[in-house]
Amino acid sequence: MKHNGWRKPTPGLVQAEKLAQVGERLNIPKSKAIVALKKVAASLGLKASDMLLLDTLSAITQDQDWEAGRRPIVWASNAFLEEQTGLSLRAVQRHICRLCEAGIISMKDSPNGKRWGRRNDEGYIIEAYGFDLAPLAARTEEFKILNAQNLEERALCKSLRHKITISRRIIRAKIEKALENSLKGPWREFEKEFELLLAKLPKRSETSEKLLDITDWFKTLCEKVENAFTEAFDWPEHSDEKESLENHEYIFFNQKMTCRHVNNDTHIQTTKKLNLVNSNSIRKKENEKFNFNLQVNRINPKNNNHIQLETIMAACPKFAIMAKQLGGYVENWEDLHRMASIIRPIIGISEDAWYLAQKQLGPNTAAAVISLIYDKYEKQEIVSVGGYLRGIVNKAINGNLHLQKSFYGRLACHNKKS
């Protein structure tokens, strides 16, 4: 850049002038150049006030100024820019310097340092001195490539955050399950290590390099927890799930084998131990506690919420993926109930809410509801999983629950997208 004696040349100004010479030979529409810049403005360190000033300058230019062989030069005064942007004179000067140093605009100075210009009858610039926006045209393709890289980086960061979330939920669920069932293993050490990793989670967006390290840390801990869980897992003899299933089978057997017209059958005692046979009152309490299917029939006699297991898994792919990661494929209703019991604390459903849902809906229906809620939660379709579950239970009590519509509707949406 030739030094005219009043503006000190800097590396940024020299580079901006070179870019302006390149942009003069290109035919780039104004809108295309401005849009390309706005998509990467934050990456270039530009602020909102910088873009406001640039928008003001570009609005003054005309379409023919961006044709090949010409330069979009603006000779607006500082007073005009102050009026249009609402910025002070010092702020206008500061933002102009930042745009020049960033290689967004170039300065074409007159011999006396004043900005002025004139156009011919056809509207083309004959001579002008002021702000040259030609560097924008020269860097349009560069901005497009940078934007593509930014989108790729965001997609990678989103994928890594998703992996971290999955690992975090698996670790939390298995540690809580192990401690709840007193499994053998260093679960307290795992819990402390897990808390340390949670403290390292970024509170704002991080680069993919940082997230890759965090993902590896969670993946390593997740593998250790899964290995310990597989080696030491042993259901307690009287766990809630086992007791529920055993009583469920007992009631089914009792309903099938007991004579309908006999209420109090005699029983031949085959041992000397006392109190082996439960009284009718105790059996009645057990039936009220564990016979979930009888509760469903009482609440919803039409029983119009029957859905096939294959339909549930196809309509809730997020649940199917998580179930596979935690314990394998869901092949029957017992698998579905078992996986629902493991997954429900991951999304914040309490033990009391889970018990109430089973009592009012039945084990199978409650498990299907958990799969639906988890799929909706993962897709951010619901915020309060507890409130959504309570709503389903209330609908069942009032006889207004139609789960088949929800599952078939989601299945139809999946088919349309595919």
Structural account:
This protein is mainly alpha-helical. It has three domains: 11-138, Arc Repressor Mutant, subunit A, CATH 1.10.10; 151-232; 291-417, no CATH class. It is 63% helix and 4% strand. The protein has 19 helices and four strands. It has helices at 11-24, 30-40, 48-60, 78-85, 89-101, 134-138, 140-180, 187-199, 208-232, 240-257, 280-290, 292-299, 309-315, 317-327, 333-343, 351-361, 363-378, 385-398, 403-417, and strands at 73-74, 106-108, 116-119, 125-132. Strands 1, 2, 3 and 4 form a four-stranded antiparallel sheet that branches. Helix 12 (292-299) packs across helix 16 and helix 13 (309-315) crosses helix 19 (403-417). The longest helix has 41 residues, at 140-180. The protein is elongated.
Number of strands: 4
Distance between the termini: 58 Å
Low-confidence stretches: 1-5, 233-304
Per CATH, which architecture of the largest domain?
Answer: Orthogonal Bundle
CATH class of the largest domain: Mainly Alpha
Q: How is the biggest beta sheet arranged?
A: 4 strands, antiparallel
Mean pLDDT: 78
CATH structural fold name of the largest domain: Arc Repressor Mutant, subunit A
Number of domains: 3
Instruction: Provide the succession of SSEs.
Output: HHHEHHEEEHHHHHHHHHHHHHH
Structural class: mainly alpha
Radius of gyration: 35 Å
The helix count comes to: 19
The helix fraction, in percent, is 55-70%
Overall body shape:
elongated
What share of residues are in beta strands? under 5%
Architecture blueprint of SSEs:
Blueprint: H1 11-24, H2 30-40, H3 48-60, E1 73-74, H4 78-85, H5 89-101, E2 106-108, E3 116-119, E4 125-132, H6 134-138, H7 140-180, H8 187-199, H9 208-232, H10 240-257, H11 280-290, H12 292-299, H13 309-315, H14 317-327, H15 333-343, H16 351-361, H17 363-378, H18 385-398, H19 403-417
Antiparallel strand pairs: 1-4, 2-4, 3-4
